[in-house]
Design goal:
By secondary structure, this protein is mainly beta. The chain folds into two domains: 130 residues, Beta Barrel (Thrombin, subunit H), CATH 2.40.10; 141 residues, 3-layer Sandwich (tm1086 (SG structure) fold), CATH 2.102.30. Helices cover 11% and strands 33% of the residues. Strands 1-5-8-7-6-9 form a six-stranded antiparallel barrel. Strands 10, 13, 14, 15, 16 and 17 form a six-stranded mixed β-sheet that branches. A hairpin with an 8-residue loop joins strand 6 and strand 7. The longest helix has 10 residues.
Length: 285
Amino acid sequence: MLKTNSDKLIKMSVLGEITAPAMSIPYRITAEGDLKVFPGTGGITYNARIGDNACGWQADHVEPGVTIKNPKDVHNSSLNILSCAGNIATVITGESKGKTGFVTGKHGGCEHVLIDFDSKVMEKLVIGDKIQIKSYGVGLELPAHHEIKVFNISPDLLSKINIKSKGKQLSVPVTHHVPAKVMGSGIGKDNVHRGDYDIQLFDKETVEEYNLDTLKFGDFVAITDADHSYGRIYKKDHISIGIIVHSDCVIAGHGPGVMTIFTGHTKHLKTTIDKDSNLYNYLYD
């Protein structure tokens, strides 16, 4: 088991409420110049959850499971920064009061936190229900691998991933490798403790070469030649690993979103391909 500084981390409550879908205009302009009307972010998405395909939906930026946000900007900022994948989320109002789920991701721009609940729980949730998260994970470090930076993951979830340690190297299982050249919206953001950035799927040859149309919500993926230490940049011989948090998109520069988990130089951070490296398998198996 990896040694961490988890005994030094603070557990703190943050709060959000299930947010309604927001559509200020009906049309989305596709990268090919067409007009489409699609479901997008927000709400309770009943038939798209972690483990399901992230591509091919008649949707744009759709968020799997339950979307929450705090109506006060400063509190929503804390909700986004402090929530980590794998944190326990508890419903505190409504018919599902007391039921729990897991944080699965964060979506930048709209500043949403995403949560997965059992489908029976989701049927009783309503927009406006309040959900409290026991945030735990910000500040997580690996003392024996200080060259590798860690973001947005709870120690409990980290312990469930079959990560191999050999000397100064870590090997993390991922489902896909993604070349930095197709990364789009969100690049250049200077804070990877919140939000995500998008994998563009508009070049068919690249999509086929890297099997990017098989991405699933919750997949752990590796972005090659990408460093996220102090923001998202292109950098040779570096690698960043993250979780797929939202669906593919038709808007230019957008696509399935990735929330950062690890980043480091390739001499320290390695990957192995494992098609089962998905949040669903880690949280529910």
